[in-house]
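Many introductory courses stop at the sequence. We go one step further.
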Amino acid sequence: MSEVDGFHSINQQSVELTRGGEDADSRRSKIVMRCLALLCVGLAVVDWVLLAEVLQKLQKPDPTTGESYNKPLIICFSIRCCYTIAFIPYSLWRFTPIGGQGRYDTEPFSEKYLFTRGCILNVMGFVSGYTWYMSLPLTSVSANTAIYMCACAAVFLISIPVLREKITVIKVLSLIVCCVGIVLVSLFSEHKDPHKRPDVNGTTFTDNFVDHDSDKKNQGTALGYILVLISMFLYAGYEVFYGKLLQTDQDKHPAITSFKFVGYLGVTTPVIFGICLPIWHLAGWETLALPPPHLYGMFFLSIFLDAIFNIFLLLAIALSNPTLASVGQSMALPGSMVADYIIHHFLMPFPALIGAGCVTLGFCGFVYEEMKHQPAEHVARDEGEDRQALLSASSSDERDLPSFTTADDSRKGVVA
C-alpha cells in the first residue's frame, strides 16, 4: 500500500469514528427530545380533561333563566391573547441565570420573522377555533368529536408533502386503529342503564367530550358539519405549518424558540382580530359581554387552561413532529374514561372500552415507529456530510503529505 493510500485509509477510519460518535449523540438527543415531547403531550391531555370539565360548567344553562354563556369570538380572542404567558418561561431562560451559558447563543429567527409568521399562523388557528365553536350547536356532539379527533389523519396527510413525513406500514395502521377507536368511543360512550350513571352534576368526564343527551335534541345540519370539517383541516394545517416554520438545524434550543413563537401568537391576536370585537358587537352577531359574576372564576380558568393546553401541544410539535403531537391529543378520550372510573367510579360500556384500547394501541404504535426511525432528511444530510468530510480529509492530506524525493525522482516527476 502506498503512503497516500495509507493516509486516506486512516482518515476514512477517523471520519467514520467521528461520525459514529456524532450519530450516537444525535440519536440520544432525538430520543430525549421525543421523550420530552411525550411528556408535553401527557400534560396537554391532563389539561384538556380538566378544561372540558370547566367549559361544561361555564356553558351550562342557568337553572333560572335557561341562558348559557355562548360567546365563541370572545372566548377565542381571550384564549389566544393569553398565549402571551409563554413569554414568561422564555424570559426566565433568556434574561436570568436559569438559562446558563445557552442564553448567550444566537437565536435562529429574527423578531420580524416571528411576528410576520405569527400573524399568518394566527389567522389559521383563530378561524379554526371560531368555526369549531360555531359548529357545536349545529352538529351532533358525538359526530363533532369523532370528526375533530380524527384530525391526526389530516395532519399526517398534510405532513407528507410539507414536512416529508415518512410513510410506513406501522404509522398508517396506527392511525387507522386510532381513528377506529375514536369513532367507537364517540358512538358507544352512553351507558344503557341510567341508574348506573354517576350523579355528579349529571355528567361524567367523558360526557364533556361526547354528550348524547344533546344528540337526542340535535342531529346536526349540513352547515354544522361543513364548519367542523373546515375547522378540523385548518387546525391540522395550523399544527403542520407551526412545525414547518420552526424547522431549522441552527436552533440549539427548540423548546425556548417555541415558547417565544407562542408568545408572538398571543401578541398578534389583538393586532389582527381586535377590530372584530366591535364589528361583531355593532352588527349584532355577538354582543360584548362577560359571563355572570359567579362564573368569572370558571371563565378565566378556562382561558388559562386552554392557553396552557396549546402551549404544551405546540411545544410537543417543536420537540418532535405535528403527527405525533396530534395522535397524542386523541389520548384525551381514554384519559377522560380513566378519570371517570377513578373519580366518579363509572365504567363505560364495553364497545367504548374497546375504542379506548384502540386509541391507546394506535398511539403506542406511532410512538414506537417514531423512536425507531430517523427522519429521511436527517439520513440524507448525514450521508452527504459523510461524503463531504471524506473528500475534504483526502484533499487536505494530499496537500499536507511530506514529499520524499531524490534528485533523480524530481527530474522524473515521481513521488516516492
